[in-house]
């Protein structure tokens, strides 16, 4: 006699709470304090009690991350994730948390991050890191001065060589990010800039001048994901996790098959397929932008334009709040804040936009309608990893 095994129905997963800690210049707080501040604010935003949290995800702080952070927050979770894959960490963690909640392994998972990267350097508690280390495969690159930014610069130059992408087109990404930041009162830099401003800035790593590169700030963020049965008790309407994907590509540049293709080409395809939508359905995109080239190539790899057409795609204000595809609506890492692994900030901003809580920076569709679908795509390392999450009202 054969036994028929049936799987339990998977629960829907919602974003119940979001928040940022104090961001920008925060000289009087520790990273732990920023974690706690963001977590408290996200819990308040959700309207739920701290006792519902049975899952916790964190990375980047402590020797036993996230054990130390959970203890600091007074949490004793029965589901935990400490995945650390750079800037894409939080989209990957959100995917893991959503799967765990859907399967019934957790009910409410808190994702939280905090960093005093800017303050630490100003106070000389640390120095700027030129590399992620010199062990393992990286030992063959680091001695030759192949820094993180130089790897991105090399990839950008390859795209320029292959497809004719111009410095002016890359500069447009920074200009439009700053235009979006102008409507965000919490953005670190809000004064308008021009293409010439970007091109005339001090060279950091050819072809990147200073304004091609993300800012360095302090700050934290938190997102609370919950099972669908908690939604009725939440303070606000839910934003649903519709689909997610993740992918890792390489660590050494010699193992990267094509400098013009990021791992978002895989994570994005998976996320859209699992969400049952296409890039054409998306209203806003929050994309990791440590450098201008990241935005341009990720737009290609997510399918918003064909490979090699990213340069033309980002022209003519397309990425601004009133453009065809608003991108990095808070100003992104190029202008708003970038305290390190910024992927969690992408999720917070996407949810704010879908809820209609972005104030002057709120995107509106035809007839004044709120956006309905958003994608957040994080990148880690030097295009080493990618996590993409599709969210919807």
TrEMBL record:
Positions the record marks as coiled coil are none
Q: Does the keyword DNA damage apply?
A: no
- How is this protein named in the record? Acetyl-CoA acetyltransferase
Domain Thiolase C-terminal span(s) in chain numbering: 245-393
Give one Pfam family, short name only.
Thiolase_C_1
Every copy of the Thiolase N-terminal domain together lies at: 24-229
Fetch the CDD domains from UniProt.
SCP-x_thiolase
A GO molecular-function descriptor = acyltransferase activity, transferring groups other than amino-acyl groups
* UniProt superkingdom: Bacteria
Q: Which UniProt keywords apply?
A: Transferase
């Amino acid at each position: 006699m054969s036994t028929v095994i049936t799987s339990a129905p998977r629960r829907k997963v919602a974003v119940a709470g979001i928040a940022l800690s104090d961001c920008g210049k925060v000289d009087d707080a520790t990273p732990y304090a920023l974690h706690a501040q963001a977590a408290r604010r996200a819990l308040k935003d959700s309207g739920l009690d701290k006792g519902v949290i049975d899952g916790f995800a964190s990375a980047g702080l402590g020797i036993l991350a996230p054990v130390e952070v959970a203890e600091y927050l007074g949490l004793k979770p029965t589901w935990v994730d400490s995945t650390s894959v750079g800037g894409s960490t939080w989209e990957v963690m959100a995917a893991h948390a959503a799967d765990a909640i859907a399967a019934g392994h957790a009910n409410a998972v808190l994702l939280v991050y905090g960093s005093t990267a800017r303050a630490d350097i100003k106070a000389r508690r640390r120095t700027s890191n030129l590399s992620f280390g010199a062990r393992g495969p990286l030992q063959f690159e680091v001695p030759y001065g192949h820094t993180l930014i130089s790897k991105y610069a090399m990839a950008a130059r390859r795209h320029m060589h292959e497809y004719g992408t111009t410095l002016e087109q890359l500069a447009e990404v920074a200009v439009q990010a700053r235009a979006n930041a102008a409507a965000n009162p919490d953005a670190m830099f809000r004064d308008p800039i021009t293409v010439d401003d970007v091109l005339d800035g001090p060279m950091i790593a050819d072809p990147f001048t200073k304004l091609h590169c993300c800012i360095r700030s302090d700050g934290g963020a938190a997102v609370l994901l919950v099972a669908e049965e908690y939604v009725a008790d939440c303070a606000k309407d839910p934003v649903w996790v519709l689909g997610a994907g993740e992918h890792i590509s390489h660590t050494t540049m010699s193992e990267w098959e094509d400098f013009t293709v990021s791992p978002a080409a895989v994570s994005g395809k998976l996320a859209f397929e699992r969400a049952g939508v296409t890039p054409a359905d998306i209203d806003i995109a929050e994309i990791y932008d440590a450098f201008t080239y990241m935005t341009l190539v990720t737009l290609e790899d997510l399918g918003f334009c064909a490979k090699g057409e990213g340069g033309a795609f980002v022209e003519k204000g397309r990425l601004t709040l009133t453009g065809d595809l608003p991108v990095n609506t808070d100003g992104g890492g190029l202008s708003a804040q970038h305290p390190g692994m910024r992927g969690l900030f992408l999720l917070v901003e996407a949810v704010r936009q879908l809820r209609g809580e972005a104030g002057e920076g709120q995107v509106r569709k035809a007839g004044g309608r709120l956006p309905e679908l958003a994608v957040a795509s994080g990148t880690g390392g030097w295009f080493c990893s990618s996590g993409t999450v599709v969210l919807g009202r």
